[in-house]
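Components:
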Amino acid sequence: MKIHLVGGFLGSGKTTAIANASKLLTDKNEKTSVITNDQGDYLVDSRFIQQSNIPFTEVTGGCFCCNYNQLDSQINTLKENFNPSVIFAETVGSCTDLIATVLKPLLKYRESDIEQVTFSSFVDSQLLLMHLLGNTLPFSMETNYIWEKQIEEAEILIVNKVDLLTPDEFAKLKKMAKDTFPFKQLLFQNSLNSDSVSNWVENISKVQSLKEHKSIDVDYNKYGAGEANLAWLDEEIEITSTNGSSVELVFEFIKKLTAEVTAKNLPIGHLKFFLSFNGQFHKLSYTTILEKDTPNSLKLEKTNTVDLLVNARIQTTPDVLRKIFIDLLNQLKSQNGVTIYEKHLSYFQPGFPNPTHRLV
Ligand SMILES: Nc1nc2c(ncn2[C@@H]2O[C@H](COP(=O)(O)OP(=O)(O)O)[C@@H](O)[C@H]2O)c(=O)[nH]1
Ligand SMILES: [Mg+2]
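Structure:
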């Protein structure tokens, strides 16, 4: 069994790349499966992988590092149910120190059934360019510390979303990244493009099983503060309208929500939505620099009921985040002919990272 550990900051493109890589490998008859992971209990990424028909399990309510035994038991579950030859394991986007807390423990404690463990770290190319040009990233100092540690730790650094750069920016970033990280393996990738993802898959499949992995020094006080600065909220609601306008109402809600967060200058780690209606599934995702409008074609869909799952990781307090949500939800509820059924709501400040193992 091969395990490809995939790290990198919130919104850098991990799930997109994993889903596309899994499809490519499955088409080549490789039994491929995925383990998703996040701080909350109802994960947009899990729904997204599920609707892509890729076998998966999840570790919820905390990261792999602090819940190593859960990761281990989910690997067993996949083995029993599916016997995969490849597992992609996506780590929480605000985690670092993964070589010491996940990769090395996997190599040590599952030595007998793992033939290869690789570690890919994703970074958003626009953020990397900002950073290399000497600009400060839009998060708190401590959260920026996590982002920088993720780059330092990267063995294979996937500089992702290069399709969003101008040719000049791309050329500049390539040169600066190669000059700054002469000893890292760099892949410049567009994870929406299958040739580009295929190149990543080829590269990780070549990683030597006996490769030496170098853990990094991490100041856990700073790391813990960086995690705590980003509040988490997950919420699932069902919106029913008597005139078939539920999709439109959901898009209005999403638009107001992103506008409110932006107006309050709250940096977005991720803001993800998963919509299900009429047998259709759509994931929408916003990050601090990715401005995206909702697809017009979808807005015209007529349906009475839409299920909406929201996962937010935003630099603010859980109470502020909850208030923004509840106020907008109340506005939605007050509209004529609209009923909201609230399935789950949880919001919290992630706890201090306390890894199960730390092998340096
Ligand atoms: N243009 C572009 N968008 C991407 C790329 N990779 C991911 N995305 C988008 O970036 C957003 C966040 O991606 P996701 O895979 O959820 O990131 P994760 O949080 O790291 O798992 C989604 O809207 C993706 O469609 C890419 O290479 N190019
Ligand atoms: Mg993800």
